[in-house]
Design brief:
Oligomer: single chain
Strand order of the largest sheet: 3-1-2-4-5-6-7-8-9
Low-confidence stretches: 185-191
Helix content: 25-40%
Mean pLDDT: 91
Strand content: 15-25%
Largest sheet: 9 strands, mixed
Structural class: alpha/beta
Shape: globular
Distance between the termini: 22 Å
Radius of gyration: 17 Å
Protein backbone atom coordinates (compact mmCIF):
# COMPACT_ATOMS: atom_id res chain seq x y z
CA UNK A 1 0.00 0.00 0.00
CA UNK A 2 1.11 3.58 -0.61
CA UNK A 3 1.65 5.42 2.69
CA UNK A 4 2.67 9.07 2.94
CA UNK A 5 3.36 9.32 6.68
CA UNK A 6 2.76 7.77 10.10
CA UNK A 7 2.92 9.74 13.33
CA UNK A 8 1.58 10.00 16.87
CA UNK A 9 -0.45 13.07 17.80
CA UNK A 10 -3.77 14.09 19.33
CA UNK A 11 -6.92 13.79 17.27
CA UNK A 12 -7.64 17.37 16.25
CA UNK A 13 -11.27 17.13 15.16
CA UNK A 14 -14.43 15.07 15.33
CA UNK A 15 -15.91 13.12 18.22
CA UNK A 16 -12.52 11.90 19.47
CA UNK A 17 -10.87 15.32 19.67
CA UNK A 18 -7.97 15.32 22.11
CA UNK A 19 -7.48 11.54 22.13
CA UNK A 20 -3.86 10.36 21.60
CA UNK A 21 -3.93 8.74 18.16
CA UNK A 22 -1.53 7.13 15.72
CA UNK A 23 -2.19 8.53 12.24
CA UNK A 24 -1.57 6.52 9.08
CA UNK A 25 -1.87 8.75 6.03
CA UNK A 26 -2.38 6.98 2.72
CA UNK A 27 -1.01 8.60 -0.43
CA UNK A 28 -3.29 9.28 -3.38
CA UNK A 29 -6.73 10.83 -3.85
CA UNK A 30 -9.34 9.75 -6.39
CA UNK A 31 -10.72 13.27 -6.87
CA UNK A 32 -9.13 14.75 -10.00
CA UNK A 33 -10.55 18.13 -9.02
CA UNK A 34 -9.51 18.62 -5.41
CA UNK A 35 -11.35 20.40 -2.62
CA UNK A 36 -10.72 24.14 -2.39
CA UNK A 37 -9.85 23.73 1.28
CA UNK A 38 -7.65 20.63 0.93
CA UNK A 39 -4.94 20.79 3.59
CA UNK A 40 -3.12 17.61 2.51
CA UNK A 41 -2.09 18.53 -1.04
CA UNK A 42 1.21 16.75 -0.37
CA UNK A 43 -0.70 13.44 -0.11
CA UNK A 44 -2.82 13.77 -3.27
CA UNK A 45 -0.36 11.98 -5.56
CA UNK A 46 -0.02 8.25 -4.92
CA UNK A 47 3.49 8.35 -6.41
CA UNK A 48 4.58 10.41 -3.40
CA UNK A 49 3.91 7.53 -1.01
CA UNK A 50 6.16 4.78 0.30
CA UNK A 51 5.19 1.21 -0.67
CA UNK A 52 4.68 -0.70 2.58
CA UNK A 53 3.23 -4.08 3.54
CA UNK A 54 0.46 -4.49 6.11
CA UNK A 55 2.97 -5.95 8.53
CA UNK A 56 5.31 -2.98 8.12
CA UNK A 57 2.53 -0.47 8.79
CA UNK A 58 1.26 -2.42 11.81
CA UNK A 59 4.79 -2.59 13.23
CA UNK A 60 5.27 1.14 12.76
CA UNK A 61 1.99 1.73 14.55
CA UNK A 62 3.06 -0.47 17.48
CA UNK A 63 6.40 1.33 17.62
CA UNK A 64 4.76 4.74 17.83
CA UNK A 65 2.42 3.79 20.66
CA UNK A 66 3.11 0.28 21.94
CA UNK A 67 0.11 -0.23 24.20
CA UNK A 68 -3.17 -2.10 23.91
CA UNK A 69 -6.41 -0.43 22.76
CA UNK A 70 -4.54 2.33 20.93
CA UNK A 71 -6.66 4.57 18.71
CA UNK A 72 -5.45 4.58 15.11
CA UNK A 73 -6.77 6.99 12.45
CA UNK A 74 -6.33 6.01 8.79
CA UNK A 75 -6.63 9.06 6.58
CA UNK A 76 -5.35 10.41 3.30
CA UNK A 77 -5.43 11.26 0.48
CA UNK A 78 -8.34 8.85 0.22
CA UNK A 79 -7.95 5.52 2.04
CA UNK A 80 -10.77 3.78 0.14
CA UNK A 81 -8.90 4.29 -3.13
CA UNK A 82 -6.77 1.37 -1.87
CA UNK A 83 -9.72 -0.62 -0.50
CA UNK A 84 -8.25 -4.13 -0.66
CA UNK A 85 -5.08 -3.09 1.15
CA UNK A 86 -7.11 -0.97 3.56
CA UNK A 87 -9.24 -3.91 4.67
CA UNK A 88 -6.16 -6.05 5.25
CA UNK A 89 -4.59 -3.24 7.28
CA UNK A 90 -7.75 -2.90 9.40
CA UNK A 91 -7.67 -6.66 10.03
CA UNK A 92 -4.01 -6.45 11.08
CA UNK A 93 -4.59 -3.50 13.42
CA UNK A 94 -7.64 -5.13 15.00
CA UNK A 95 -5.61 -8.29 15.69
CA UNK A 96 -3.25 -6.07 17.70
CA UNK A 97 -6.16 -4.70 19.75
CA UNK A 98 -6.24 -1.27 18.07
CA UNK A 99 -9.34 0.89 17.86
CA UNK A 100 -9.63 2.11 14.28
CA UNK A 101 -11.22 5.18 12.73
CA UNK A 102 -11.06 5.96 9.00
CA UNK A 103 -11.48 9.37 7.40
CA UNK A 104 -12.91 9.34 3.87
CA UNK A 105 -13.98 12.01 1.39
CA UNK A 106 -17.30 10.18 1.05
CA UNK A 107 -17.08 9.57 -2.70
CA UNK A 108 -16.97 5.79 -2.28
CA UNK A 109 -19.88 3.85 -0.82
CA UNK A 110 -19.33 2.19 2.58
CA UNK A 111 -17.52 -1.10 1.90
CA UNK A 112 -19.18 -4.38 2.77
CA UNK A 113 -16.73 -4.79 5.66
CA UNK A 114 -17.30 -1.31 7.13
CA UNK A 115 -18.45 -2.70 10.50
CA UNK A 116 -14.89 -3.91 11.18
CA UNK A 117 -14.00 -0.25 11.79
CA UNK A 118 -14.83 1.35 15.15
CA UNK A 119 -15.79 4.70 13.61
CA UNK A 120 -15.85 6.14 10.09
CA UNK A 121 -15.69 9.86 9.41
CA UNK A 122 -17.18 10.66 5.99
CA UNK A 123 -17.27 14.10 4.39
CA UNK A 124 -20.26 15.49 2.56
CA UNK A 125 -18.86 18.13 0.23
CA UNK A 126 -20.63 21.50 0.37
CA UNK A 127 -20.82 23.97 -2.56
CA UNK A 128 -17.75 25.99 -1.54
CA UNK A 129 -15.61 22.82 -1.67
CA UNK A 130 -15.67 22.97 -5.47
CA UNK A 131 -16.56 19.26 -5.63
CA UNK A 132 -20.13 19.30 -4.36
CA UNK A 133 -21.98 16.21 -5.53
CA UNK A 134 -19.16 13.67 -5.25
CA UNK A 135 -20.20 12.45 -1.78
CA UNK A 136 -22.45 9.42 -1.49
CA UNK A 137 -25.47 9.67 0.78
CA UNK A 138 -25.05 6.01 1.77
CA UNK A 139 -22.89 7.30 4.62
CA UNK A 140 -26.02 8.64 6.35
CA UNK A 141 -27.24 5.04 6.68
CA UNK A 142 -24.40 3.61 8.73
CA UNK A 143 -24.17 3.53 12.56
CA UNK A 144 -24.40 5.91 15.51
CA UNK A 145 -20.67 5.44 16.13
CA UNK A 146 -19.90 6.81 12.66
CA UNK A 147 -19.54 10.47 11.74
CA UNK A 148 -20.78 12.51 8.79
CA UNK A 149 -18.96 15.84 8.50
CA UNK A 150 -19.81 19.03 6.62
CA UNK A 151 -17.03 21.61 6.18
CA UNK A 152 -18.74 24.97 5.75
CA UNK A 153 -17.30 28.22 4.43
CA UNK A 154 -20.30 30.47 3.83
CA UNK A 155 -24.07 30.87 4.12
CA UNK A 156 -24.72 28.84 0.96
CA UNK A 157 -22.98 25.90 2.60
CA UNK A 158 -25.14 26.22 5.71
CA UNK A 159 -28.28 26.22 3.56
CA UNK A 160 -26.98 23.07 1.85
CA UNK A 161 -26.41 21.39 5.24
CA UNK A 162 -29.91 22.38 6.38
CA UNK A 163 -31.43 20.75 3.31
CA UNK A 164 -29.39 17.59 3.77
CA UNK A 165 -30.39 17.34 7.42
CA UNK A 166 -34.02 17.54 6.38
CA UNK A 167 -33.54 14.61 4.03
CA UNK A 168 -31.74 12.47 6.59
CA UNK A 169 -33.32 13.43 9.91
CA UNK A 170 -34.17 9.80 10.70
CA UNK A 171 -30.67 8.47 10.01
CA UNK A 172 -28.19 7.49 12.68
CA UNK A 173 -24.57 8.70 12.23
CA UNK A 174 -23.31 11.60 14.31
CA UNK A 175 -23.53 14.81 12.27
CA UNK A 176 -20.64 17.28 12.53
CA UNK A 177 -20.42 20.80 11.13
CA UNK A 178 -16.91 22.21 10.85
CA UNK A 179 -16.18 25.85 9.91
CA UNK A 180 -13.55 26.12 7.21
CA UNK A 181 -10.14 27.42 8.29
CA UNK A 182 -7.52 28.96 5.98
CA UNK A 183 -4.86 26.65 4.55
CA UNK A 184 -2.24 29.38 4.65
CA UNK A 185 0.01 28.76 7.66
CA UNK A 186 0.45 32.47 8.34
CA UNK A 187 -3.33 32.85 8.52
CA UNK A 188 -3.83 29.63 10.46
CA UNK A 189 -2.90 31.17 13.79
CA UNK A 190 -5.22 34.13 13.17
CA UNK A 191 -8.22 32.17 11.93
CA UNK A 192 -9.62 31.88 15.45
CA UNK A 193 -10.24 35.65 15.57
CA UNK A 194 -10.40 36.59 11.88
CA UNK A 195 -13.44 34.37 11.26
CA UNK A 196 -15.10 35.03 14.60
CA UNK A 197 -18.38 36.38 13.18
CA UNK A 198 -18.81 33.37 10.90
CA UNK A 199 -17.73 31.03 13.68
CA UNK A 200 -20.53 32.37 15.83
CA UNK A 201 -23.02 31.87 12.99
CA UNK A 202 -21.91 28.24 12.63
CA UNK A 203 -22.02 27.75 16.41
CA UNK A 204 -25.61 28.99 16.51
CA UNK A 205 -26.50 26.85 13.49
CA UNK A 206 -25.25 23.75 15.32
CA UNK A 207 -27.24 24.70 18.42
CA UNK A 208 -30.46 25.33 16.49
CA UNK A 209 -30.17 22.17 14.41
CA UNK A 210 -28.98 19.88 17.22
CA UNK A 211 -25.80 18.82 15.46
CA UNK A 212 -22.24 18.73 16.73
CA UNK A 213 -19.66 21.45 16.25
CA UNK A 214 -16.21 20.32 15.10
CA UNK A 215 -13.05 22.35 14.76
CA UNK A 216 -9.57 21.65 13.40
CA UNK A 217 -7.73 22.29 16.64
CA UNK A 218 -4.40 21.14 15.20
CA UNK A 219 -4.54 24.00 12.68
CA UNK A 220 -5.10 26.54 15.42
CA UNK A 221 -2.15 25.17 17.40
CA UNK A 222 0.33 24.43 14.60
CA UNK A 223 -0.96 26.06 11.39
CA UNK A 224 -1.02 23.90 8.25
CA UNK A 225 1.82 21.51 9.09
CA UNK A 226 2.46 17.83 8.43
CA UNK A 227 2.81 15.33 11.23
CA UNK A 228 0.38 16.91 13.69
Amino acid sequence: MKVKETFLSLQGEGIYTGVPTVFIRFAGCNLTKHCTYCDTVYAQDSRSGEELSVEEVVNRTKGLAPYYKQWVCITGGEPLWQEEELERLVDGLKREGCLVTIETNGSFKPPGWYTKVDSWSADVKCPSSGVCGVSREDWFRTRFCDQVKFVVGDHEDLAFVKAMLGRHKADTPIILVSPMLPNNEAAGGKAFVANREFLQIVWNFCTENRVRWSFQNHKIVFGNRQGV
